[in-house]
Amino acid sequence: MGVVNVTPDSFSDGGAWFDTAKAIEHGVRLAEEGADIVDVGGESTRPGAQRVSREEELRRVGPVVRELSRQGIAVSVDTMRAEVAAHAVEAGARLVNDVSGGLADPAMARLLAKTGVAYVLMHWRGHSHLMQDRARYADVVGEVHDELRDRMAAMVDEGVDPGQIVLDPGLGFSKLPERAHNWALLAHLDRFNDLGRPLLIAGSRKRFLGRLLSDADGNPRDFTGCDDATVALTTLSAANGAWCVRVHDVRPNADAVRVAAAWLSGGSRLDEGRGELIGRSGV
Question: Is 251 a known active-site residue?
Answer without folding.
Answer: no
